[in-house]
Amino acid sequence: NPTEILEKSGLDEIRISLNAVNEEEYNLLCRPKVNNAFPNLIGFIKECANSDIDTYVSFIVGFEAVKRTEDEFRQFALSLGIKQDNIILRDYIRPID
């Protein structure tokens, strides 16, 4: 179990940029190079949240490709076991052309 290994090594905090609430949006935004990246990441986040590791999850609000409200991101993070204070929402900043 990777979470147990991290915990035993002394890791006490982790911050994960999730940016999506489902696999389709995750694949669109993050373009993972491995299959099942989203479900594996969700499992890892849940394991961390259920351990002694202080787990934070972040989302970028305002991507044009994904129309989600801050509340939708918050509710999803809470459903994973993330504490309200450990949900980070950042505004999308468009690249300079």
Strand content: 15-25%
- CA-based shape: globular
Uncertain runs: none
Say how many strands there are.
3
Q: How many domain regions?
A: 1
| Overall pLDDT score | 94
Q: What integer value in Å does the Rg equal? A: 14 Å
| Number of distinct helices | 4
Instruction: Report the order of strands and helices.
Output: HEHHEHE
Which structural class best describes the helix and strand composition? alpha/beta
Proportion of residues in helical segments: 25-40%
With strands numbered from the N-terminus, the spatial order across the biggest sheet is 1-2-3
Termini, distance in Å? Answer: 44 Å
Question: Major sheet, described briefly?
Answer: 3 strands, parallel
Task: Give a written overview of the molecule.
With 97 residues, this protein is α/β, with parallel strands linked by helices. The chain has one domain. It is built from four helices and three strands. It has helices spanning 2-8, 23-30, 37-49, 70-79; strands spanning 13-17, 54-61, 87-91. It has a three-stranded parallel beta sheet with strand order 1-2-3. α4 links the parallel β2 (54-61) and β3 (87-91). The longest helix has 13 residues, at 37-49. The radius of gyration is 14 Å and the shape is globular. The N and C termini lie far apart (44 Å).
